[in-house]
Amino acid sequence: MKKTMLLCALVLTAMTAFGQESRQDASFSVFGLIGPDVTGNAVHMKTTTTGGILASYRYLLTPKSGLELNYGFAQNSEKYVTSFIPNGRIHTRNQELTGAYVYNMTFKNFNPFAEAGVGALIFTPIKDYGTNNLDAKQNTNIGALFGAGVAYEISPSFDIRAEYRAFLVKAPDFGLSDFKTNRYEVVSTPSIGVAYHF
User: Fold this and answer.
1) Range of 191's domain?
2) 102 forms bridges with which residues in the sheet?
């Protein structure tokens, strides 16, 4: 009986100590969207570089392991060159909806981390002067998210977070057979931002 009571007391003490730590955080970041040139199926696609915003929510399951949800937003242009279309342009709204597993380490005020997950990139054509094919349709492409970075703790509630993030996804074709590369691309989104722990 004494052993059971001692074990319960130890478990409650550990739970109370861990419960006092911040297990959740919300972050807001700015990122650069850098897409590669993609060539396939006699189509050449070039993604223009732009900036965007990223909102994330992270929940720590243990001090080293956590889960993260992300929403990102940016606007850029996809340019296509084919044998029939020398100057195809789609002004695009990019949205990211992803979930990832995050592994954390702690070295004084520095907290390096790595993440991997899945999600969707939503490519929505904007029908304006930057788009010269009005038949373009929205693409929702499923892919893999991966990245690594470091958070620097500036107080118990705030840290500055810098990260290299990337998304492996099929190149968008906007429902147009003339723009179909049948290739995958790695879209890089390096980011820097601030996280609030609660």
Assistant:
1) 23-197
2) 66, 115
